[in-house]
UniProtKB/TrEMBL annotation:
Residue ranges occupied by any Alpha/beta hydrolase fold-3 domain in the UniProt entry: 142-347
Superkingdom per UniProt: Bacteria
A Pfam family assignment: Abhydrolase_3
InterPro entries per record: AB_hydrolase_3 (IPR013094), AB_hydrolase_fold (IPR029058), GDXG_lipolytic_enzyme (IPR050300)
Molecular function in Gene Ontology: hydrolase activity
PROSITE patterns for this protein: PROKAR_LIPOPROTEIN (PS51257)
Designated name of the protein: Alpha/beta hydrolase
Alphabetical keyword list: Hydrolase, Signal
Keyword Signal included in the entry's annotation: yes
Annotated signal peptide: 1-21
Amino acid sequence: MKTNWLKLAALVCTVAVWLSACTGGTKTTTVTDSTITDSTLAAALKPAGPAPEWGKTIKPEMQAVIEKLSSYGDKPLETLSATDARKNHTPTDAVMDLVKQNNITLPTAKVDTLGKDIDVDGGKIHLRIYTPKLGNGPYPLIVYYHGGGFVIANLDVYHASAQALAEQVGAIVVSVAYRLAPEYRFPTAHNDAFTGYEWAVKNAVSLKADPAKIAVVGESAGGNLAANVSIMARDKHIMLPVHEVLIYPIAQADMNTESYKMYEKAKPLNKAMMSWFTEKYLTTVIEAQDPKISLINANLKGLPPTTIITAEIDPLHDDGIMLADKLKAAGVKVDRKNYEGVTHEFFGMAIIVPEAKAAQAYAASQLKAAFK
């Protein structure tokens, strides 16, 4: 098992955010440290072997991350208990080690962070709040939900994504540590996600945020949660997000889509893992068809404009496409981009993967436009 993981993960994520900020918004910033260039990184990150059978179109930088992740020799997640699975290395660990091996200097963060515990039904959850160091507010507000199949991962694993959004958008980000399964089964994560959103709405002013400029963002399971938060806000008649960004969201329960078939054995997410996540979070098979899990079965009318980001080499690729189509059919404005040659979890890898830098810049530009 790895040591000092959380501290190191946070450090590498800071690096990822820093380089990704070079393409944020409409202004381009030049990196002045001559030792940190795209060409240097590309040369250093040449993959060791051929492209994997499950991803012949994989980009070199993405493959280098996957090779590093595979090098740890962890047991397949789907063969482990949830407790042991949480001890496995993550894609963030792989990025961290590649950054260390390339001797990249760690930059100073452009945000301050603080933690906050809030009450939820039956317990408490933790929030991490990112506030830009520049400006005095009021800032736009983003409520962010991490991935991990409702079972694994935490705020540290997805720190890069949350910090990138705060820095590139110039927004306060509230990252929500909803409770995980199987200790807390469906719909606990969904209810926690909404409670976190409610707290952010009610406390926007005290956070130096503009209560009229609130968006939700989520990755994977978190993308599912973000969409559900918008639905619940609509149904409960509270402040609706002005925009939602859903990054390779879980949107339906059928694991026989074309992307599930094509990328059944992909890394870092495969079909067996998705089955494992489902078994851990849901109590019965019937719950898989619940509109909270199968968003394509939900009433999507009246939801905010939506940005959907998908990865080519991802079992969940078609989930994002199907959800985009359903949203459009419901009259929701949808913008969507697919990134070729990258896998699930690529979004937070901006220090290594150029497509991640581009995706972060795209998400930031969409959010900035929504906040105007």
